[in-house]
User: Fold DNA 3'-5' helicase from Thyridium curvatum.
Amino acid sequence: MPCRLAMSSKRKATSAVDDASKAHRASRDSTPGLASQRRRVGDAKDDSWEPDEQPNVLDTVIAQNTQKFDISAFPYLLPPGIVDVASRDFQPEQKRDFTALRLKPDHHNRPLLIDGWGKLILESFHPLAPKVQDFLITVAEPLSRPTFMHEYRLATHSLYAAVSIGLSSDDVINTLGRFLKTEMPPNVAEYVRHCGRSYGKVKMVLRDSKYYVETADLDVLQMLLKDPIIGPCRVQTVENITTASAPTMAGLAIAGTKEAAGLREAAGLDMEESKRPQTGQRATTTNEVYNVLAEDDGDNDYSEQDVVHAFQIQDDKVSKVAERCLALHYPALEEYDFRNDYINANLEIDLRPGTQIRPYQEKSLSKMFGNGRAKSGVIVLPCGAGKTLVGVTAACTIKKGVIVLATSNMSVIQWRNEFLKWSNIDPDSIAIFSSDKKSVFTGNTGVIITTYSMVTNSRERAYESAKMMKFLQGREWGLMLLDEVHVVPAQMFRRVIGSLKCHSKLGLTATLLREDDRIEDLNFLIGPKLYEANWMELSEQGHIAKVQCAEVWCPMPTEFYEQYLNAGVRARSLFCVMNPQKFQACQYLIRYHESRGDKIIVFSDNVYALEIYAKKLMKPYLYGGTSNTERQEVLDFFQNSPQCSTLFLSKIGDTSLDLPEATCLIQISAQYGSRRQEAQRLGRILRATRRKDEGFNAFFYSLVSKDTNEMVFSSKRQAFLVDQGYSFKIITELKDMDKMPDLEFGTPQSRRELLSKVLGDAESKAWKDEEKESAGLQADGNMFYGPDGKPMRKAPRSAKRTASALTDLGGGQGMAYVEQDRSANKSIKKKKAPQSAFFRKVAREEERRRKLP
Ligand SMILES: Nc1ncnc2c1ncn2[C@@H]1O[C@H](COP(=O)(O)OP(=O)(O)OP(=O)(O)O)[C@@H](O)[C@H]1O
Assistant:
């Protein structure tokens, strides 16, 4: 490590400082697992000041009021926007009170503890831990997996997922019982049994382009029909309820992967062609459906187990019905018996013979195809762990029409390339529907790759787009692949689910996170979480890079801090990022890592700061306003030239950027407390090609201005990564930084000049440049995220214009062009020559070299 942890003796005495520090501590304390992770920093045996170990007024108050403390009575103790300490730190403590539990005599041989709320704690250092972990990942939801203790929770969805792959409630209870240090609490056992009983009773089936709710249980049918929400969603046709013989269950099959080494052939792959389900016999049309069906039941040859009763629901009510079924504890399963689908055309697609599926990819797919059918749900793998290949393999297994939804045009192209790379699909069978390109596949069926915004666009469409949408909506798809599926719960994307008819859906993401509470909605919009990989395990195995994370505290010079305290909320972030000591830390770290041969990405959300930093340090930079050609040029240069070791990136680089050369990341400004952005940025260095080198480590530095809101946000941002097992070291001082030659802003005079420049620009330029960023992003079809981390369709209100590629501006690409700020466009036009000082410098140097004799 280039840095030394050192004691910061200075503590400013202003009340504002105390507030900020308190806020910081409170926020840290409010993050589950964080405090313990922070303490691990102490393992470094330094004598550094540790925030967790300082006496905290809040802790004292809490300690004195353990039984009766009501945080709402003390709102002034918590800074606005911080989750209250009482509910995060204390109530869960009560829930995790294990004192009443009786340990089994041989408890030391067992690695698992459970409380009365279904929370499980695994000793991950126990010899049995790997086995238990495999089981837990099937039946429970991982909450936090730091080095020594893993937390899981038995949740309804995870139990449903377990039952769906053939585990019975008793299997779950007995297996857990074997691993537990204590007896299983009876209420938890009852809860598991309850989930087992209701699971699988209701199914959502797509047949002949119509959606049906199916059940074999007449009591459940009656309940659903009488339900005030589900009842009205029924399609009132002559044939209200149909009764059919139940389709036979088939064995496990991951078809289409037989050529792929590494993917275990599952039992029953050579499944018999089972009988096609008979199509519906008419049952009755009366409102007293239940009674009549009951009579019918007695009259026909079917036993209750052998028949299913179904009623059709309106296409646009599918997610509403699914949501309600879940609320009634009868989740509507979406399972696709693709082997017995004789209606939809087969797609010629198989994995290429050389394709080697990694074990965790195989495991995740086995959860999807666990009972011989394709289950809808979500697979969570870390950034760079190969979600695309998982999606491609699922498509090769189902072998029916596939629709892929991606977040940007760039991602659409990447998906197409990955399909061609991993599978033997005919290139003509892949179509693209994006703002840049529209193509169709030639055969009866194929793969179509599009963006969320294309299929949710509610504006009047160009003729070509409208035709394409009709094509998408007018047929059944075997599989819908939803990339970055965490965006789906946004109101505008929900429509996608209803408007496209798919037999199965697979959501893929690294960060099943939203700052709102809508992530749970994926359970009925897509399906349960089927698999979530362990980041630390994958980095131990070399599939993703090992990363050392650090938060570098950068004190602010007094004159900057005064301005910071007097500034409004938005301008404060400008002073934080323009803090000259932060600049120096960034300069120091770049120099250090360049000298080690690292390739460095510096991330700044603030485009004004991005430009100033990059120009001063003579490095290339990219932001939303950079043209596509220059963007490609800069990326190629960064990847291939030893002359370029550092690249400055705005948030356009957060996702979908494959830069395997990058080994170090420095974050100077970020989007408030967004946990997802932190993880996505870390993802840029997880794919480092050098990850398999002996002793290799990538580095992630988050630079925060000390005693400011940045510290609070930083703690919140890290929470997700800490739960994945990363620990952030706190660096309070960079060794010998002030002795570094050419250190910028080393004199009071230069700092004063910087301050007056920032003050002068604060009102105008700084924020105008954010508009440029937004414009560029919109042209790219990327998502915006608001201060709360929620995805937004449009640029923030301050954005005045939409820039795009010239070809798009003709209106034929299905994108509307709005120009409201003409002067801003002029400034874009002016910038035809390379904007980057770095490139100008390279050009000058080349010119000089040419002139040399
Ligand atoms: N089984 C595999 N064998 C070899 N290479 C693989 C395998 N799986 C994935 N990869 C490679 O790993 C890299 C990352 O894959 P991919 O882009 O699909 O990751 P991702 O999980 O989608 O990342 P992000 O979340 O950052 O978009 C790619 O270069 C891909 O080709």
Summary: The chain is about 40% helix and 15% strand. The CA atoms of residues 242 and 816 lie 46 Å apart. Residues 356-358, 361, 381, 383-389, 510, 656, 683, 687 surround adenosine-5'-triphosphate (CB under 6 Å).
